[in-house]
Amino acid sequence: WHVDMLRRDTNDYEIPGFAEVDPEPGELEPGILENSSFETTTGSVGASWLGDDAFFGIAISQYDSNYGVPGHAHEEDTGEIAEEPPVRIDLEQTRFDVKGGWMGLNGPIEQVAVRFGFNDYEHQELEGTEIGTLFENRAYEGRIELSHTPWGAWDGTFGVQFGEREFSAIGEEAFIPPVDTTTLGVFILEQRDVDDWNLSLGGRLETLKHEPSSPLSPDFSDTAASISFAGIRALNDDYALAIHAALTERLPVAEELYSNGPHLASSTFEIGDPTLSQETSRHVDLGLRKTSGTITWTVTAFYTSFADFIYLQDTGTLDAESELSIFVYEQQDADIYGLEAELFAPIAQLGTGEIDLRVFGDLVEGELDIDGKLPRMTPMRIGARVQYHDDGLVLGFESIRHAKQSDTAAFETATDGYTMVNADFSWTQLLSSGQELIWFFKSANLLDEDARRHTSLIKDIAPLPGRNFSFGLRAAF
Questions:
Q1: CA 450 – CA 416 distance, rounded (Å)
Q2: Would strands 325-350 and 268-271 be described as parallel, antiparallel, or unpaired?
Q3: Are 431 and 413 in contact (CB under 8 A)?
Q4: Which of 89, 123, 435, 466 is least crowded, fewest Cβ atoms below 10 Å from its Cβ?
């Protein structure tokens, strides 16, 4: 059996300067990101029966949250800045899950796994005390996996996955009509060893249907197929080569097809395109790993070529009524490529513990076939962490540099680089009764940087928190 509960409340968080990148004189006060507070309560309870060759479990969970959306103010005809009512999201979610499985079966199927879930979700976009839009999303999904006895040298699993979603947005500012979505997919995953290679093959075929309630929005129905290959080859006792290739088709979701209105949670006015077709990607990545020895590392390069890539593009214009920036879902060919690397090495023994070093970095580039750069591409990142640890103590210090992002799409603003310096400490105290007490301390953004995530739609009005600290005690029993 399992039970958990959590309650968390915060005030508006502190920031190093102004919330907006270029505020008008006297428009904003520095030091606080207004309407960034949140309250969250969550909990779950579940139980499982475990047999020698079977199991069955059931769980129910609840998640409630109320959080603010910063940055809602507009300029009136007089030229003065007028405060709009604060926009908050009041969210409730209840989820019900059932899982079961049977192992050690006789015959061609040696194992069966079944999963079913039902999710009841709703949130209200509140403008002051008024409900602007009520979103409701009721969905279920199921999955059946069958593991077969070996087919020659191949060993694997196949199965079916299905689901249905009833989505609605109700209110004067609803940006999407009610939509019913059904999916049905079949899949297979097989693996085998060939000489020094461990190989795997996977495939999936899925049908999807969207049925909007509005007579002005057409139904959407299509089928998508995907296939992937992966191989790992041991070069010797210390090194391994990994390669992965995939051809994947993705069908548009309801929001990409039917959106047409203000989406306050992201401070955008979104317009979908009901003529969007499936998106196809051709992906390959190649990695070299040092898997054993004193120093271990991995380097991976990847490239994905998209046909009819679906993305959200800023038009550079404002909606006259809501004064939100208009974003439209568009589709064209695109390429995304990059490199990531990581190195881990022990530095020294200190008493009963060890000092370790981890160095990491990644770089991603994205380009459209016609219109230049893809929007909201993450900038280059490089960092390092030094950590001391023994049986009960962990003490870490890390620094991560996020580079400036000036390779921007049309109407997209650049973001300055920033360095996140963090430190943490934890100590595990084992009591005579067998229980554990874990004392911890964490600090983030010690340099109090004005940090803005380039991938965020609200980066120009909502920086990350300034210098912050947390400490506490966990008890495991």
A1: 9
A2: parallel
A3: no
A4: 435
Q: Which amino acid would we find at residue 189?
A: L
Residue range 126-152: average pLDDT?
A: 92
CB atoms near residue 263 (< 10 Å): 21
Q: Are 254 and 306 in contact, with CB atoms under 8 Å apart?
A: no
**Model confidence pLDDT, tens digit, residues 44-65:** 999 999 999 999 999 999 999 9
CB 230 within 8 A of CB 190: no
Burial label, 305 (beta-carbon count in 10 A; 0-12, 13-18, 19+): middle
DSSP state of 171: S
The Cα–Cα gap between 399 and 35 comes to 29
Position 377, amino acid: M
- pLDDT-derived band at 83 (thresholds 50, 70, 90) equals low
Residue type, 127: E
Tokens standing for residue 381: 């990142």
Contact 406, 388 (CB under 8 A): no
Q: How many CB atoms lie within 10 A of CB 120?
A: 15
Instruction: Collect all residues with Cβ–Cβ distance below 8 Å to 314 and sequence separation of at least 6.
Output: 325, 326, 327, 375, 409, 410, 411, 412
pTM for the full predicted model: 0.88
Cα dihedral 406, 409, 414, 417 sign? negative
The conformation of residue 380, written as its DSSP 8-state character, comes to P
| 9-23, 90-104, 311-325, 428-442, range with greatest mean pLDDT | 90-104
